[in-house]
Structure formats: C-alpha cells, structure tokens
TrEMBL record:
The keyword Ribosomal protein does not apply. This is Cyanophycinase. One of its GO terms (molecular function) is peptidyl-dipeptidase activity. It catalyses: [L-4-(L-arginin-2-N-yl)aspartate](n) + H2O = [L-4-(L-arginin-2-N-yl)aspartate](n-1) + L-4-(L-arginin-2-N-yl)aspartate. Signal peptide: none annotated.
Length: 280
C-alpha cells in the first residue's frame, strides 16, 4: 500500500494561503477629494504604520499644478510624520525606463496620488513598470492613498468622468445603461468601483448607471473630506462626511429609450468610525 505524505499533501495548500495573505498585505486610504482635515491626515499617517527608516512617495501626474499639489500634501503629512517625503512626476517614458524612480516607488511605505485627471495619470502608468512597482509595494505592505482623481484610479473599472451619450458634457441627468464612460484603473480594488466628491456634487445618477452596467461590482461614492480605508476585506470610514455603498441589484431591465430599472439593491450610508465588510 502506498504511503501518502501529509507534508506533500498540505504544502500546496499552505503555499496558496500564504500567497493570498501576502497579496492582501497593503492598505488603501481613499479620499473623496476636497479639503483634508488634520484629523484625516493624522489617520492616514497612523494607518500607514511608518517606521523611522520608511519614506513617503507622492505621485502628482494627475494634476496640472504638480508643484503646488506636492507642497500642500507634503506640508500636511509633515505635521504628523518626520519621515522623508519624495515626489516623482513621471512621464510615460520614465514610467518604464527610470529605474531609480521606479525602485523608489516599489520600496515606499506610503504612496500618495494627487487629485487632477485620473485619465492623465493612467495614460502614464497603465501597462508600465511603474504600475507593477506600485502593486509590488502594495503587496509588500505599503499604504496606497489618493484624493479625487487619486481615488478614482484605485478601481479596476475606473470612472473616467465623461459620459458616453448626450450632447451636454458631464451632465449625467439620467440613470441609463451604457451611459458612463469607464476605463482600466490601477486595480487595487477588483470588485469595487469608486466615485469621488460624491454627496456634495450629487453624483447619484452616475454611480447608479455604473451599477447597472457592472452589477457584479460594489459601487462606492466617497464624499469630500472623507476616506474609505481598506485593509484586506475590512473597510472603515474616516473623516467629516459620508460614504455611500450600493450593490447586488436584482431584476434589471433596460428600456428602449435607455432608461433602466432594478429592484432591491443593497444601499448603505456610513459615517466616521463605522466599519463593514468589503469584497475587494
């Protein structure tokens, strides 16, 4: 009778679980835009668990005013951290060829993406060595943070900010199928789609239209001055306003005029300090 090796049987399973744990080691601190309070930035620094030898990287490629954006967030973070802060304003070419900058991103403990235009950021980072470096940093335990455009890029399915139809740009006056333009983002969140400046700009039509098109995802609207903080499958809210979470719509119907209906979707609104499970 053949002898079965328990070690040989269990080893692949153990490796699989270790790999899964390693893949989710980092954290996300996703800010919905607007003014960032001192308390919010203090929470960002605390969440990042910075050691004395760690450093922080700011990526300003989304903004048209990189110097101002870098100076402002650097000053805020420096209130609560003595860690070194560096910034790299990558071009498309540098995102593949500037080895020193790419390695610095890969080894950072906190990576912060400024606001601006999420499409501009992804045009530089998508399919690049910098993209891989950011994911490697996340797998190794770094906190990835961003505000506004820097929040939108967190999702695999990224809202670009534009609509597919209607002559009036960015009005989003209806809830329709195939209405909201999306593209590929960073993919730190595979099953979640982020929208920002949410409550103050009443972006409900946009987010519910996205939910109809991507009903297997959870859509999350983060208001200004507020962050969704994600660690593995746990999420909590930090900041002054609210976060809206919607998923699992049933009985979807698409009418000839593009208007849609669905029933019994799960809708929750969370405020500072509240926690919930999130399949990310």
């Amino acid at each position: 009778m053949a002898r079965v090796s328990i070690t040989g049987f269990l080893l692949p399973i153990l490796i699989m679980f270790m790999s899964l744990a390693h893949a989710q080691k980092g954290k996300l601190f996703i800010i919905g835009g607007g003014e960032r309070s001192s308390a919010l930035i203090a929470d960002l620094v605390k969440t990042s668990e910075l050691r004395s030898t760690d450093y922080i990287v700011i990526l300003p490629m989304a903004t048209s005013v990189p110097e101002e954006s870098i100076a402002y967030i650097s000053e805020q973070i420096s209130e609560f951290s003595n860690n070194k802060i560096v910034s790299f304003n990558f071009s498309k070419e540098q995102a593949n060829n500037n080895t020193n900058w790419i390695d610095s991103v890969k080894n950072a403990r906190l990576i912060y993406v400024t606001g601006g235009d999420q499409n501009k950021f992804m045009e530089i980072v998508r399919d690049s060595k910098l993209y891989e470096a950011m994911h490697e940093a996340y797998r190794d335990g770094a906190t990835i943070s961003g505000t506004s455009a820097g929040a939108a890029i967190m999702s695999k399915v990224m809202i670009t900010g534009s609509q597919k139809q209607d002559s009036k740009s960015d009005s989003f006056r209806e809830i329709k199928a195939d209405y909201v333009e999306v593209s590929s983002g960073m993919g730190f969140l595979k099953n979640v789609i982020i929208d920002q400046h949410f409550i103050i700009r009443s972006r409900y039509n946009r987010l519910l239209s996205v939910l109809y098109d991507h009903s297997d995802k959870t859509v999350v609207g983060i208001d200004e001055g507020t962050a969704l903080v994600v660690s593995k499958n746990k999420a909590r809210i930090s900041g002054d306003s609210q976060v809206l979470v919607v998923n699992n719509p049933k009985n979807k119907k698409n009418m000839p005029n593009g208007k849609v209906s669905f029933q019994q979707a799960n809708l929750s609104i969370y405020v500072h300090g509240q926690e919930f499970k999130l399949k990310n």
